[in-house]
Each structure stands twice: as C-alpha cells, then as structure tokens.
Amino acid sequence: MPDPVHPPKPRPGDKVAIVSPSGGLPGLFPRPYELGLARLRREFGLIPVEYPTTRAWGSTPRERAADLNAAFADPEIRAVVASIGGEDQITVLPHLDRELIRAHPKPFFGYSDNTNLLLFLRNLGVVSYHGGSVMVELGRPGALHPLTARSLRAALLGSGPYELTPSADVGDVNGPWDAPETFESEPRTEPADGWFWHNADRVVTGIGWGGCLEILAWMLMADREIRPVEEYAGQVLFLETSEEMPSADEVYRILRNMGERGLLRQFPAVLVARAKSWSFGQPLEGPARAAYRKDQREAVLRALSEYAPESLAVFDVDFGHTDPQQVIPCGGPIRVDGPARRITVTY
Predict the structure, then answer these.
(1) In a 3-state reduction of DSSP, which class is residue 94?
(2) Extended beta strands in the chain, E state
(3) CA–CA dist 248, 114 (Å, integer)
C-alpha cells in the first residue's frame, strides 16, 4: 500500500463538507443533526456545508458518491465529515472517482459503515479518521463528553502525536432521538473498568488498519478494498462492533475466517473497542451488559490464540460505538506500549 499522506487540517473559519454516504438519516432525525452542526460552528469554529443527499432518505448509491466526489474536488472544502453510518455504503464505492480523490486528499471523519470509505482512502495512501460523526458524537445530548471533545479537536484541527487515555466513566444507554426530553440532559454514565491488556510485554508501532468488524466482514465477502494479506504485515489492527450487537460466536467466526485467510497473523498488535452492549433491540441490564462484553473479549482472545498467539492486544479502548469516543487514525501511525500501558496515535 502507498505510504500514508496526512492531508492538511482545517482551521477555524474553514468550510467542511457534511455528507451522508450511507443514507440521509438527518432528514429523519433532525434534532441531533442540527445540534451537531451548531457545535461544529460554535465549538470548533468551522463552517459546515451540506450536500444534496445529506438529508435525502432514499438517495441512490450513485447520488451519494457524486456528493463525495464533489466534496473532495471542491478547493474550498478542507475536511469531509459523515453525518452518521448505516449499512449499504459498500454499494457507493464503485461510483467514487478514485483518481480525483487521490489528487485532492482531505481529512475524512466517520466510523461504523464508514469503514468502507476509510479503507478506500487507506488504499489510496490517504490517512483518514475513524470517529467523529455529526449526529452521534457532535449531536450528543447535553454536551460532548470531555474525552470525546479533546480527541476530536486534536484530530480535526491539529496534527502530531496524541495519547489515548482510559475514560473514568462510560455510557451505553441512549435515549430516542425523536423524543425532545432526550436532549434535556447528558446520557447516563457509570464508572469504567479501564483497559484490559494481553501479551503486554512489548512495544509495537505500525500503521492503523481496521474499523467496524461487521463491515469488515462484508468487505471481505465482497472482496472490496481488501489487499493481499502480506501487505498488512506489521500494521496495527483496530476493531469495534456496532449497536447491532453481534453474538460472541459471530465475532469469533468472523475473526476465524480472517485467520484462515492469513490476515490475523499479519498484525503484531490489536486494539479492540469496548463493545456496545445496549440497544433498543437488546436493552440489557447492567450485569447482562458486563457479561456480553466479557463474552466478546473471550471470543477475540480465542481467535487470537489460534491464529495470532504472539500478538499484543488491548481491550475496552474508547473508540467506535463508545461514549466517550476517541479518534483512531486509519492509515496513520499507532504506537502500543505494553510495558508502559500507553497507546499513542498520530493525527
């Protein structure tokens, strides 16, 4: 893969594109979307520019790709930010203008289904950023979590090394976006257990690659933006799971298949996000949420023991579908220091 290029970051007063590569959910849930836009203006000093399909529910993959192509081509746009994720962004990738985007690299922020675009950009040699959607992080009721705000500000407006830190408090339960009372206070949080380290007797530095595990599985099945496994040797794998809450068995089977492909053993270090363990479809109570997270960790450890037994791994890191959320560079350097129990990324 090409050597990574860090596109220049926006500065206060610059324009940033707001896009919905996976679907126009801002049109269905305007409250968190408008709140996120207001915070981009007020707290980050940026000017959001909305594209035609951003609020358009039912837009085609070709139409959404046209917005992305236009955002990267526009010289006044200094970064591209996803409104939210979804589930069909894989159908957008064939309509993207690879050479146009390669010629006009810009920082892109998104996660979940945006794993598609993150890995598309990685294959072009462009560093992108796993995290920071408008509706979820910027549109969080009450206020941004301080750890989220600090990381997002460093990644969106800054550059250079940034040390991730375990959060003292974490949240998992969300209020409905169509209920005004959801936005009257911050989401409930509870004390965090910190990070869990495995094989933490070494230091690994490598380029970050990964994203949402369910989306990675789809991309592997479609053979979309997946390079020969040897090209991932020495990189740092980062993984998270979504609010669809895959079972521990499913997580193990996805990783097993990655192992059978020869992919897992390429990564000397793995970062695993704290699993999202509550959703409206599975509203687990406290002990059941803890058990779900424990089962998922054991599933990952089982796969690693079989296919990458020497790899260093860190669990329950705050990225992906977590609150707070810290930004992970896709295609940028990550240093995992086991003896010192430190993770440093480069924005």
Answers:
(1) helix
(2) 15-19, 47-50, 77-82, 108-110, 128-130, 161-164, 169-170, 190-191, 196-198, 203-212, 236-240, 269-273, 312-317, 328-330, 333-337, 342-346
(3) 23
How would residue 2 be classed by pLDDT, with cut points 50, 70 and 90? Answer: confident
Question: What are φ and ψ of residue 204, in 5° steps?
Answer: -125, 130
Q: 15-160 has which fold?
A: Rossmann fold (3.40.50)
* Across 285-304, average pLDDT: 97
- Token reading at 105: 């690299």
- Give pLDDT, residue 161: 98
Q: What is the mean pLDDT of residues 178-191?
A: 96
Could you read off the pLDDT of 222-269 as tens digits, one per residue?
Answer: 999 999 999 999 999 999 999 999 999 999 999 999 999 999 999 999
Domain ranges of the chain: 15-160, 163-346
Question: Which are the contacts of 1, defined by CB distance < 8 A and separation ≥ 6?
Answer: 122, 123, 125, 227, 231
Architecture of the domain whose range is 163-346 = 3-Layer(bba) Sandwich (3.50)
**How large is the average pLDDT for residues 112-131?**
98
Tokens describing residue 323: 């609150």
Q: What is the CA radius of gyration of the chain?
A: 19
Q: Which two tokens stand for residue 293?
A: 């997270």
Q: First CA to last CA across the chain, in angstroms?
A: 19
